[in-house]
Amino acid sequence: MQLKEKIEEIVSERLSEEYFIVEIIIGGIKIKPKITILLDGDNGITIDYCAEISRKVANEIEEKNIIDTAYTLEVSSPGIDFPLKFHRQYKKNIGRKLEIELIDGNIKTGKLEEVNEGILYLSADKKKKAIEETVKQEIKLEEIKKAVVIISFGD
Q: How is domain 87-149 classified at the CATH fold level?
């Protein structure tokens, strides 16, 4: 089993149901690898919870001697600019504006209104002959290459 899979197994066993792994990144050099664990939760995640998971994972790495050199372990939530990957992440971002790049190269932008059965519903304002109307777009999760939350100040 590769290091990434071992770390994923350790983390998964320690997470309560409301939290999930977004990504595990193994980087750095072999002399001192850096393990970055990105977690999220249905209602967000706290720094304290990340610290708790970090301690538990570090303890198991040490107990089982999974890494026999010095290493850096970082457990945090993905930044707001980190692409959305999972259905659960889309659900918690209902009401926010997203920019979605589709597999076919098209870009869709709009407010995330709803998420059901692998389908997103975005509302976007379109102007036609000086009349502004809101158009609801249906996008299948499997058609998405990348989706990010658009941060706007003052809205």
A: SH3 type barrels. (2.30.30)
Q: What angle do CA 43, 44, 47 make, to 5 degrees?
A: 140
CA distances from 34 to 12, 30, 48 (A): 19, 9, 21
The verdict on domain 3-76 having CATH code 3.30.300.70 is yes
How far from chain centre, in Å, is Cα 82?
6
**pTM for this predicted structure:** 0.81
Terminal C-alpha separation, the chain: 48
- Give me the residue spans of the domains in the chain: 3-76, 87-149
Over residues 60-79, the pLDDT tens digits come to: 999 999 988 899 999 999 98
Q: Residues 29-32: contacts with CB within 8 Å, 24+ apart?
A: 30/69, 31/69, 31/70, 32/69, 32/70, 32/71, 32/72
From 82, 86, 12, select the one nearest 42 (Cα to Cα).
86
Question: Contact at 8 Å (CB) between 89 and 19?
Answer: no
132-154 tens-digit pLDDT? 567 889 999 999 999 999 987 76
Beta pairing class for 72-76 and 144-149: unpaired
